[in-house]
Amino acid sequence: MRRAVYRQAPVSLLFVTHSLHHGGATRSLRELIASYTTCDLVVPHRAAMTDDEARAYFGPNVRRIMRFWLPFELCYRGRPALWRHGHRWIALRLLWLANRAAFYRLAAEYDAIHLNSVVLHPIVRPDLPFVLHVREIVDLDLAAVRGSACSAHGTIFIDDATRAPFRDLELPSITLNNPVDMTRVGAPPADAAARLGGEPAALTIFSIIGVLIPEKGIDRVIRAFRATRDPQLRLVIVGQGLAEAALRELARGDARIVFWGFTTDVEPLFAMSDYVLRGEAYPCVGRTIYEALYAGCGVIIPGPGDAPLFEYERFAPRIHFYPPGDERRLTATFEALAGTKLVAKRGDSNVAGYVADFDRFLHLTTDRSA
Prior knowledge:
alpha/beta; Rossmann fold; 2 domains; 7-stranded parallel sheet; 6-stranded parallel sheet; globular
C-alpha cells in the first residue's frame, strides 16, 4: 500500500460553489476558506453577490473569482418542485455544456478542485482531482450521483444521513461536520424588544432560520405554534423566499409570530433565541442547528430520539426531538419548554479541528506523487 505524502497545503486549490446566497453551504465554505489557505473561487454566472461582495464575504484568502455556468442537479431530498424550477434546470444544463470545455481547461491548472455541493456532481471527471462535498440527502438519480462519487478523488459527507446512500461503496471519503464559529455570538439585536413586543429576557423565543420555501415546513411550525396559548412565547421567522406571503397569511392575527426578514448578521439572533428549530417532514439537522448548539441555544429537530449527531453527548441536554411532520408533538414541545430560557451563550468554535481534518483528507485523496 502506498503511503500518502502530507504537505501543509496544496500548491493550488480551486473551490467551486453552486450558490452565493448566505445559506448554510455558503457560510460553511466561508469559514473554511477564511481559516485555511489561499485559493481561487468559481461562482455561478447569476450569483446573488457581485465579485466585490463575494471577495469581502470570503476574505483575503481568495485570489481570483471566476464565473461559469454550472449545473444544478435537483437530486436531493427537500428540492424545490420540478414544475417550479424545471425550465431553469434545463437551461443550466445546456449552458453548462456550452462552457464546460473552458471550465475543464481552468480546472486542469489545480492540484485539487472542491465542489461545494452534490448538485455540482456532473462536473466530476476521473482524470482531474475533484473532491465532492455531499451536504444533502440524495434521493433522486442516485446511480448517476454514485457514479460521480466513484470518479471523484475524494468525497466528504457532512453526517451519517448524507453518507447512507453511498455506504456500500468503497470510496476515499470522510464524514466531517460543518465548520462552525460562534465566537462572535455577542448580544441580542438592539431593537429586539421593540420587534418582539416585549423584553427578550421575559420571553421564551423560538427561531427558525433559512430560506422561506415550502420544502422547509415552516407552515407546519406556524400551525403548531399557533396552537399554543402562552402569551410569553415568540416564534421568530428569519429569512425570505417564495413562500413568505403565504406564511404571513397563515400567521396573521397572532402577534407572537415575528417575521424578522433576511439578515447576514445572524450571531445576534442566536444570542436572542432560546431555541432554534427545523420543520422539515423528514429527519433533518443542518448547519443552523449546530450554529445554535455552539452558540449555547437549545434546538428542536424532526427525527428519532436516537438520531446520530456530532458531539451528541456534549449537547444532549439541549436537544429536543419530535416526530417529523407531527404538529401536535411540536406544539407539546413548545409548551413543555415555555419559560425555560437558555441565556448562557457559549460562543464556541470547531473551525481549527475542521480545517486540520479537511487538510489531511484533501492531501490523502489528491496527492498523486505518493
